[in-house]
Amino acid sequence: MLGPVILAASRSDRMRRLISAAPVTRQVVDRFIPGETVTDVVPIIADLTSRGLELTMDVVGEDITTPEQASAARDAYLELIGRLEELELGEKVEMSVKLSMFGQALDGGHELALANVRPVVEAAAAIGTTVTLDAEDHTTLDSMFAIHEELRKDFPQTGCVIQAYLFRTEADARHLAAAGSRVRLVKGAYKEPAEVAYQQKHEIDKAYVRVLRTLMEGEGYPMIGSHDPRLISIAQELAHQAGRKLDEYEFQMLYGIRGDEHLRLAAEGHRMRVYTAYGTDWYGYFMRRLAEKPANLRFFLRSMVSKG
Questions:
Q1: What letter would DSSP give residue 155?
Q2: Please, is 208 exposed, middle or buried when counting C-beta atoms within 10 Å of its C-beta (0-12, 13-18, 19+)?
Q3: DSSP label at 94?
Q4: pLDDT per residue over 86-100, tens digit each?
Q5: Measured by CB atoms within 10 angstroms of the end CB, which terminus of the chain is less buried, N or C?
């Protein structure tokens, strides 16, 4: 399986240098990451929202080594929120944040990440939108869930992400499937050991359906993060069985992947949110997109051969 190899490469400085230096890489990266600055992505935001889609915006970058970098990440999100306010798109565009980007891995990182993310959540609420805390590797999750719980005391609309491939997730889903919660379910995109996570696709898919059923039957707001046609169909059936209306759950897919499906679901009346990343520190995000789906890797390799 190439996925684990690619995920290992995402942590390699040598691979980062090699791939970043390849002339074709930027062209392929643009498929998944449409710009490096807020100004770059404003036209993308305007275009997608005009087509009936909603967005969640991610300023990419996880390798934070200083408190100053964490503060800069906070300020990048505050700049984004300022532009969304100018565009009057608060109701259509939310934010996704990785707490590692806010200093979670530094000394005193839990408190630092909470201090940095709180003003972002507060500013988002002020323009009528919200923030979802992305899940990262399993060692960070207790801190993420604690910060999520703390933020929800003042901003109950704050969302979080759970990953189907982790053994712990079924219990986490039962805890989170409460009134007012917003929970995005994804398969998982980090290299995790067999002691904590399912390793085979069929096991992960079955776990995804079990967790999704828990969320659909709960009292919260499920967000289905998947491009898998079979899982999308199952999600629609589970929503129907649970008596949910179309505005009581949503689908989320990545920018650059299955764009026609985004529009199809929106045309059917579903809430369809496009996860759109931007920024200069794109390497880790890009490598996880390659690892998630063989078609993404084939696209990259074909591009390198044809352009090389």
A1: -
A2: buried
A3: E
A4: 999 988 999 999 999
A5: C
- Report which of 249, 248, 246 is spatially closest to residue 268, judged by C-alpha positions: 246
Place of tokens 């650059």: 256
Residue with tokens 């496009």: 274
Residues forming beta bridges with residue 224, ordered by sequence position = 185, 251
Hey, which bits of the chain come out as E strands?
A: 54-59, 93-97, 131-133, 159-163, 182-186, 221-225, 250-254, 272-278
CA 127 to CA 83: how far, in whole Å? Answer: 11
Cβ-in-10-Å burial (0-12, 13-18, 19+) of 230 comes to exposed
Cβ contact 241:214 at 8 Å: no
Tens of pLDDT, residue by residue over 181-209, are: 999 999 998 889 999 999 999 999 999 99
pTM of the entire predicted model = 0.87
The catalytic site residues sit at 134, 184
Q: What is the DSSP letter of 197?
A: B
User: How far is C-alpha 104 from the geometric centre of its chain's CA atoms?
Assistant: 17
Q: Tokens at residue 274, please? A: 């496009």
CB under 8 Å to 296, separation ≥6 — which residues? 257, 289, 290
- Give residue-wise pLDDT tens across range 252-293: 999 988 999 999 999 999 999 999 999 877 676 676 666 666
Alpha-carbon distances, residue 60 vs 51, 76, 234, 302 (angstroms): 25, 10, 31, 25
To 5 degrees, how large is the angle CA 69–CA 183–CA 91? 75
Quote the tokens at residue 21: 């230096």
